């Protein structure tokens, strides 16, 4: 019986263990987690979500405080179009996070950054260009384009000296999305180095509608694999979403996948950014405690624990401090939902908003408990402590379990 370690993922001249730990914003897939994946010979991801905010927490900068100071006059205004990111500071924060992570990298693996198009930041093209360029300038090994179709993203960096040697990948959830991506980026003369095929059981935002349960990851992977073959395109495929054991991974590798992207199993590791009390919520969750809802203002369905503090919370929009989801005209669906509830309950001290959430604030505070479908199985991957809590794992333990396990088994940590 084969195990993941019998396979290798080849990306140009690099050969790595075919396990990619997926990007998890906001700083859930930390530098430490990505560095462990790289040390162990696989691929880890940091995330470019809210980097100035992450930088304040990690590196003692003051980007959020200063931005709030600058735009304080606008806090009570429902029109947020004046709230802009300073591109120089955005580049600086990205440089800091990417640079410090890459300096600390050891071992044979790679560290990539997950770059989300849906972080429109009131100037979608300019802020995306700055984030991509700063990551390239500061030595990132690869960029995974996520949360969007990225039809113009290669063009934003095609003049960069590293454009042809950095690894560039795209996350898609359908053959159609891949075809569109390839067509629109073709004029840069470059193909992606890998394609992550993300199915409906993943964590975070989904590339499906609320009918996500109708779709099957293996079927999408086979469709894309066969199409690439017919087109004589040799691009490594990396399925993601619900790959919970080494054996699940081997099944995809035997289908012709080049590697797998996994995330949920790593949410309960020491290196993950989630606070321990949140990790215990993930462990405790049963199947019925998880839902896919439409509270994200991005418009994409998102999977999360039903007891996520973000759900129903009616905090005043925090765009002057954050504002990562403001579209090109300075709108966010949460602002509209919040204003509607304020107008409907003018005397309430604290309002409730159920249909949308202030995702920036709640992701920043680890209060939107987004998770993969199989989060309810995490309790079977560890032991209980004497006080009844679940033992937090190490990323090395989980990585090695994916790499070496067989027969659908999951190794528990040592007694
Ligand atoms: C807590 C959490 C946060 C996530 N955040 C992001 C994100 O910011 N960007 C992204 O492209 N994918 C995100 N994902 C998706 C993962 O990178 C990955 O593709 C997927 O969850 C893999 O499926 P699995 O969790 O079942 O292993 C997230 C997943 C989880 C569990």
Task: Break the fold down into its secondary structure elements and pairings.
Blueprint: E1 9-11, E2 14-16, E3 19-21, H1 31-39, E4 43-47, H2 51-59, H3 63-71, H4 87-103, E5 110-116, H5 124-137, E6 142-146, H6 153-157, E7 167-172, H7 175-185, E8 194-198, E9 204-205, H8 217-230, E10 237-240, H9 246-254, E11 260-262, H10 276-284, E12 290-293, E13 302-305, E14 312-313, H11 333-344, E15 352-353, H12 359-364, H13 395-404
**Order of H and E elements:** EEEHEHHHEHEHEHEEHEHEHEEEHEHH
Bound molecules: flavin mononucleotide
Major sheet characteristics: 6 strands, parallel
Q: What is the typical, i.e. mean, pLDDT?
A: 98
Please tell me what the overall shape is: globular
| Number of separate helices | 13
Low-confidence spans? none
Distance between the termini: 27 Å
- The percent of residues in helical segments reads 25-40%
* E-strand count: 15
What proportion strand?
5-15%
Give a summary of the structure in a few sentences.
With 415 residues, this protein is an alpha/beta fold. The protein is built from 13 helices and 15 strands.
List keywords for this structure.
alpha/beta; 6-stranded parallel β-sheet; 14% strand; 415 residues
What does this structure look like?
Helix 5 links the parallel strand 5 and strand 6 (142-146). The strands form five sheets. This protein has a six-stranded parallel beta sheet with strand order 4-5-6-7-8-10. The protein has 13 helices and 15 strands. It is 32% helix and 14% strand. With 415 residues, it is α/β, with parallel strands linked by helices. It starts with 8 loop residues before the first strand and ends in an 11-residue tail after the last helix. The model has no long low-confidence stretch (mean pLDDT 98). Residues 22-25, 28, 47, 49, 114, 116, 146-147, 171, 198, 201-204, 240-243, 261-264, 267, 370-372, 374 line the site of flavin mononucleotide. Flavin mononucleotide binds at residues 22-25, 28, 47, 49, 114, 116, 146-147, 171, 198, 201-204, 240-243, 261-264, 267, 370-372, 374.
């Amino acid at each position: 019986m084969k195990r993941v370690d019998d396979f290798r993922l080849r990306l140009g001249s690099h050969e790595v263990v075919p396990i990619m730990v997926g990007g998890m914003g906001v700083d859930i897939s930390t530098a430490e987690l990505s560095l462990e994946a790289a040390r162990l010979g696989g691929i880890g991801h940091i995330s470019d979500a809210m980097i100035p905010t992450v930088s304040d927490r990690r590196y003692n900068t003051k980007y959020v405080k200063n931005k709030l100071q600058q735009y304080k006059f606008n806090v009570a205004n429902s029109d947020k179009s004046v709230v802009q990111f300073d591109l120089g500071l955005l580049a600086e924060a990205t440089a800091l996070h990417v640079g410090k992570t890459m300096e600390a990298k050891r071992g044979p693996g790679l560290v990539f950054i997950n770059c989300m198009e849906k972080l429109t930041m009131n100037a979608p093209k300019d802020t995306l260009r700055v984030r991509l360029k700063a990551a390239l300038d500061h030595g990132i090994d690869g960029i995974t384009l996520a949360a969007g179709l990225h039809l113009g993203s290669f063009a934003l960096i095609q003049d960069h000296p590293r454009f042809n040697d950095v690894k560039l990948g795209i996350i898609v959830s359908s053959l159609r999305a891949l075809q569109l991506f390839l067509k629109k980026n073709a004029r840069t003369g470059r193909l992606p180095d890998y394609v992550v095929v993300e199915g409906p059981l993943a964590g975070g935002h989904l590339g499906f509608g609320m009918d996500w349960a109708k779709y099957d990851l293996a079927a999408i992977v086979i469709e894309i694999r066969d199409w690439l073959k017919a087109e004589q395109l040799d691009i490594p495929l990396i399925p993601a979403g619900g790959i919970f054991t080494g054996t699940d991974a081997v099944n995809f590798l035997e289908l012709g996948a080049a590697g797998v992207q996994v995330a949920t199993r790593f949410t309960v590791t020491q290196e993950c950014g989630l606070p321990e009390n949140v990790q215990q919520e993930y462990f405790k969750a049963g199947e019925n405690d998880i839902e896919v809802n439409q509270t994200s203002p991005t418009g994409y369905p998102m999977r999360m624990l039903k007891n996520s503090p973000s759900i129903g919370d009616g905090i005043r929009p925090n765009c002057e401090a954050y504002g990562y989801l403001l579209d090109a005209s300075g709108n966010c669906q949460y602002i509209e939902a919040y204003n509607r509830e304020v107008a409907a309950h003018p005397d309430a001290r604290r309002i409730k908003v159920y249909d949308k959430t202030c995702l920036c604030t709640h992701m920043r505070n680890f209060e939107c408990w987004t998770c993969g479908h199989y989060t309810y199985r995490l309790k079977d991957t560890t032991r209980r402590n004497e006080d009844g809590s679940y033992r937090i794992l190490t990323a090395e333990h989980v990585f090695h379990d994916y790499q070496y396990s067989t027969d659908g088994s999951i190794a528990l940590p040592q007694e």
